[in-house]
Amino acid sequence: MIKQFFRPLLSVRPLRCMVDERFDVRVQGLLPGVRVTLHARLRSEDGDFWEGFGHYVSDETGNVKVCKDASLGGSYDGVESVGLLWSMKPIPGSRTGLRYRKKDVQAQTDVHISVYKDHLTHSFQEKTPLASVVAERWYLAPGVQRVDVTEKGLKGTLFIPPGPGPFPAVLDLWGGGGGLVEYRSGLLASRGYAALSLEYCDHKDEVGKPRNVGIEYFEAAINLLRQHPQVCPERVAILGLSYGAFLSMHMAAYSSVIKPSCIVCISLSHVGRIKCPILLIVGEDDQSCPASESADDMKRMMERGGNSHLLTILSYPGAGHLIEPPYTPHCQASNFMLAETTSKVLILWGGHTKAHSQAQEDSWNKILSFFEQYLYRNPSDSSHIYFQKI
After folding, report:
1. Is 321 a catalytic residue?
2. Pick the CATH number of 2-138 from 3.40.50.2300, 2.60.40.10, 3.90.1150.10, 2.60.40.2240
């Protein structure tokens, strides 16, 4: 019987999947009523370790099923099939102000999942697990092409789904932190959309000189998408987070060239005169910008302009500013480099981990449904604002 306890079987299914997919974690071969800790760890490309863990008790058959059994403590509690992922935090002693962001989207993320005897809370690296397994999480599905974009003065990356196309397309804009962020575009391409990640903050020209970009820069990006032989030119959307959300609305309202089929704005500021379907995603605990108030303003603006039928608002209690693809570790605060300086500050983004993570999963599924509605199917006729409280 002792041998049975110390040789449990730990399984993760699927062992290799996309990062926006759930997995099933199970432990078999324990004695009934045994306390164990399930622990997940990954190493970021910056060399920092992140972990999440839950406390479980084996059932009368000696099994633990994370999809149906409740965690009694740890970094999350309750029945949470992917709590091991979304509850991840930097391990004790890590650098302050960390935010998990995938840089090389062509490489898998290895998640080391282990089961330990008893309910542990720290020093996992000093303990010997009862069993371990490595799960692979991917941002790119097989066959997705990654293409560097440097023409027309642009700097970005285009992701093209497998197959001949033509595909609907998305211009993917991140916030004011700068840099070229590719992982959301990789996921979109894996779901059937040609997606262009565009760098526009701290953009430099060919000789490395800082270059301020205007609306013409984004118009060139949209034109590049529309002229691509694998893109359906009349089905192009814009997805923006934070400052990228403001730019998305500004372009939809004022550009005579861009004219997107639809736009998705996460954690926004507001602009009126929108003439296309728009999905606003709001975290009600956003500590970085007045997202809820901005959404209310947008609602009133579009009612006055007679465009209320174009507006959908998803408002999430307990969610913060950085609403990312599902199962991304919640970032309540992180280091942020101030524009045109070398000063680094700690920015508070807000959100409560469980509620924020639920918002990330729900909003991602509804973003995909929104794009499917307006980029793949004919838009449904609606006569009122749709405001959903999650």
Report:
1. yes
2. 2.60.40.2240
